[in-house]
TrEMBL record:
InterPro entries membership: COMT-like, COMT_C, SAM-dependent_MTases_sf, WH-like_DNA-bd_sf, WH_DNA-bd_sf
Keywords: Methyltransferase, S-adenosyl-L-methionine, Transferase
Name of the protein in question: O-methyltransferase C-terminal domain-containing protein
GO molecular function (one): O-methyltransferase activity
Species the sequence originates in: Venustampulla echinocandica
Highest taxon listed in the record's lineage: Eukaryota
Domain O-methyltransferase C-terminal: residue ranges: 179-376
């Protein structure tokens, strides 16, 4: 098969772009406010350069088999091995075999995949070949990241793998309320209903959701500080807030904020995680029914709208908009990805397709505007930080 390599002059141009981005990065390092943007730009240019150096045919196989990495991560979790690498410890194949009683050949093959994926680095220690975690492998020391891999691998990826077949059967029509979601096509019921009858999986999903939250898009302390909150006020209702991890963290980072923090979710979620974080109250609530907390200062939805179709989102908003109309001081914050109109990142594209099994999607700013307009809302401001999600502050139009 003939190979179309990138020409040396194109590569030289890409090197210039990397150097330019590297120079801006150096300048930004002195003024940390811009560092995040500069890092992303440098990463983007460096990736373009790396891609241009690849042998194009040679990438076809690794791309197809990306799922091998999630499978290998899962196997290391099942063998309860991640903790053995705490504190930068090197663990030899011999020790792993002793600990797990697995066949040595299985360990060699699984760790070969993870080393090639830059999660581990291999060296020769006193007991022969050994592994230690790299910076990309270290996140798995936290059980929430392992829960995320497990939830995606067993509960969502199968529906994504079925996409070509199911989409062909459905003649490439987007899922609707009537047809149900791809998860339902595969499992006979909707994801959230299914989780209700599988509490162990719900626990995993809830933990997995906490695996990515720098929470720096919205300046909670500053903005809530402006509201002159009293202890008896409801400061925030986090609707479908899972185990309350977001509110727990905002509370912890801003102990000066007065008022109650309420997290609402389905009973099955609270059965999985019965104790709310300190300073947070749990309340059972279905997002498709009238909102019982009438006078909250902030109504907050994080990673919710991307789970649902436009029609479902409109029904969810119907429960809130009447309250916003009668209480001008109440804010509505939607935390989700705001896709660029073109050239989305890998992370954005992955998040969008990952919503497919649930019948949801990530949206661009223009798609958000259209969606909100259906409920008489507009965008007051899009707050952005270092996380992939933005915080969309809405207003009644
Ligand atoms: C993707 S998780 C997001 C959780 C949390 N907001 C976060 O950012 O981590 C979606 C949440 O929606 C909840 N959920 C799904 N359907 C719901 C419904 N009808 N009413 C209330 N919560 C629901 C799920 O239980 C789950 O906790």
């Amino acid at each position: 098969m003939s190979v179309a390599y990138t020409s040396p002059s194109e590569i030289a141009d890409l090197v210039k772009c990397v150097n330019k981005a590297a120079a801006s990065f150096e300048t930004a390092a002195a003024a940390p406010g811009d560092l995040h943007v500069a890092r992303r730009r440098l990463q983007h240019e460096a990736r373009k350069l790396l891609n241009s150096l690849e042998e194009p045919n040679g990438e076809v196989w690794p791309r197809t088999f990306q799922v091998n990495v999630s499978a290998a991560v899962e196997i290391v979790s099942q063998l309860k091995l991640w903790e053995k690498f705490e504190g930068g410890k090197e663990v030899s194949i011999a020790e792993i075999v002793e600990l797990t009683e697995a066949d040595e050949i299985i360990i060699i093959r699984i760790f070969r995949q993870l080393t090639a994926s830059n999660l581990f680095v291999e060296s020769i220690g006193p007991r022969g070949p050994s592994f230690a975690l790299t910076s990309l492998g270290k996140p798995y020391l936290h059980s929430d990241h392992r829960a995320f891999n497990n939830f995606m691998f067993f509960d969502l990826i199968p529906s994504i793998m079925a996409m070509p077949k199911t989409l062909a059967e459905k003649r490439y029509k987007a899922p609707t309320k009537e047809t149900g979601t791809p998860f339902k096509w595969a499992h006979g019921e909707e994801l959230w209903t299914w989780l209700g009858s599988h509490p162990d999986r719900a626990l995993n999903m809830v933990a997995g959701m906490t695996s990515h939250n720098p929470l720096d898009a919205y300046p909670w302390g500053v903005e809530l500080g402006k509201l002159d909150l009293k202890d008896e006020d409801v400061a925030i209702v986090d609707i479908a807030g899972g185990q309350g991890h977001i509110m727990g963290e905002i509370r912890q980072r801003n102990p000066q904020i007065k008022g109650r923090f309420i997290v609402q979710d389905l009973p099955s979620t609270f059965e999985a995680v019965p104790t709310p974080p300190t300073g947070v109250d749990f309340m059972t609530y279905d997002i498709f029914t009238p909102q019982p907390v009438k006078d909250a200062c902030v109504y907050h939805y994080r990673h919710i709208f991307h789970n649902w179709s436009d029609d479902d989102c409109t029904t969810i908003l119907e429960q809130i908009v009447p309250l916003l109309k009668t209480q001008p001081r109440s804010k509505l914050l939607l935390v989700d990805v705001v896709l660029p109109d073109s050239n989305g990142t890998m992370q954005e594209a992955i998040m969008d397709i990952s919503m497919f099994p649930m019948g949801g999607m990530e949206r661009s700013e223009s798609q958000w505007k259209l969606l909100l307009a259906r409920s008489g809302l507009g965008i007051r401001k899009i707050w952005r930080g270092s996380e992939p999600e933005a915080c969309i502050e809405c207003q009644v139009e």
